[in-house]
Write a structure and sequence with these properties.
Layout: H1 19-22, E1 29-31, H2 34-46, H3 65-79, E2 83-87, H4 96-108, E3 112-113, E4 123-126, E5 147-150, E6 156-163, E7 167-168, E8 171-175, H5 176-186, H6 188-193, E9 197-202, E10 210-215, E11 217-223, E12 226-231, H7 235-240, H8 252-265, E13 272-274, E14 281-285, E15 289-293, E16 296-297, E17 307-314, H9 323-326
Parallel strand pairs: 1-2
Antiparallel strand pairs: 2-14, 3-17, 4-17, 5-15, 6-14, 6-17, 7-16, 8-13, 8-15, 9-10, 11-12
Helix pairs in contact: 2-4, 5-8
Length: 335
């Protein structure tokens, strides 16, 4: 992907929110109804024994309480605030496999699962594996360390909370559109930088580093109100590229642009916190939301340790998506 000219007018709309705009958590948390939960359980049981890689929306009913609810969630992701928090999925004594199947049922109503790493995993486990967070090959979701604001791949990112940490581990989200619009207003010279190419370093355990080149912001489509924005931001991937001789050097303006995105995202005027409970499901629109996880302290007992499941979903009808990102992590990266 190559850089592009920064659009003079951004679309704005509901996804350009601040903390004051979205209000208290009861304004954006939906407790799953008994009818929806019954539908999830029934559909999940019907899919028992089938691999996620072989499932699609064609395997789901095209009506019913879950279908109606998911249609509403999808609309909120695509044209609304860009995030949904659901509460009350049955965890109890359910096994990890049973929870994964229920989570898959929810996800398949929103999009198609794509790979999250070069091993081709469609559903990953977010938990501390003891990996060193300082190694470039470590994906930070496998550690207890803080993950500063960033995006993932695909169009929709989903998390299901199975167990919480002893302390910490809050999910913090912010509207990338609101951040970029503020930079456009206050620092137009840095706003323009966001649409230029940055070097990125991608690496997984046991593989050499790959240098990619792409902008932080792009404008996939233009509407009546302005450009629809797509933001892809993983600052440590960009900064770690500078350890490689073959990567282009970051300019002072690029460094300043990255730092300003981070500073504004961490400004309490913009972000909101979500403290997960077991059975919570978070859906984020990757193009419109930056997310962060605070550091956490875990339990000593293995069966109490923090454990989340994660899905990356492709939604090709999302106009502000990115074709490269919505494909997930593919083997093309290593070629």
């Amino acid at each position: 992907m190559t850089g592009s000219i920064a659009p003079s007018t951004l679309d704005g709309g509901p996804s350009y929110w601040t903390r004051a705009d979205v209000g208290a958590s009861d304004q954006w948390t939906e407790v799953l109804s008994s009818e929806v939960l019954a539908d999830v359980g029934r559909i999940a049981r019907s899919l028992e024994g089938r691999a996620l890689s072989g499932l699609s929306s064609a395997d789901l009913p095209s009506s019913g309480p879950l279908f109606d609810a998911a249609t509403r969630w999808r609309r909120e992701l695509e044209r609304g605030r860009g995030f949904v928090l659901l509460r009350g999925l049955t965890v109890g004594d359910a096994s990890a496999d049973e929870l994964a199947r229920s989570f898959a049922v929810l996800g398949l109503h929103l999009g198609s699962p794509v790979s999250q790493n070069l091993r081709g995993e469609l559903m990953t486990h977010v938990r501390d594996t003891g990996a060193d967070p300082n190694l470039p090959s470590t994906r930070l979701y496998t550690t207890r360390a803080e993950q500063d604001f960033h995006t993932d791949g695909a169009d929709i990112i989903g998390l299901l909370c199975r167990r919480t940490a002893r302390a910490g581990g809050a999910s913090r989200i912010v509207s990338s559109g609101a951040i970029v619009a503020e930079i456009q207003r206050a620092r137009p010279e840095l706003y323009a930088q966001l649409f230029e190419e940055f070097p990125w370093r991608y690496q997984e355990e046991g593989m050499p580093p790959i240098v990619l080149s792409r902008p932080i912001c792009s404008a996939p489509t233009q509407g009546e109100r302005g450009a629809r924005l797509n933001t892809f931001f993983i600052p440590w991937y960009i900064r770690r590229s500078q350890d490689l001789e073959e990567a282009p050097r970051l300019t002072p303006l690029q460094d300043e642009a990255i730092a300003l995105v981070e500073a504004l995202a961490n400004d309490p005027r913009f972000y909101i916190d979500m403290t997960f409970e077991p059975g919570d499901v978070q859906w984020l629109k990757n193009a419109a939301i930056l997310h962060k996880r605070t550091a956490y302290e875990d339990f000593d007992e293995p069966d109490k340790k923090r454990h989340l499941l994660r899905l990356w979903l492709s939604a090709p009808d999302f106009e502000d998506g990115d074709a490269q990102l919505r494909a997930g992590v593919t083997q093309e990266l290593s070629r």
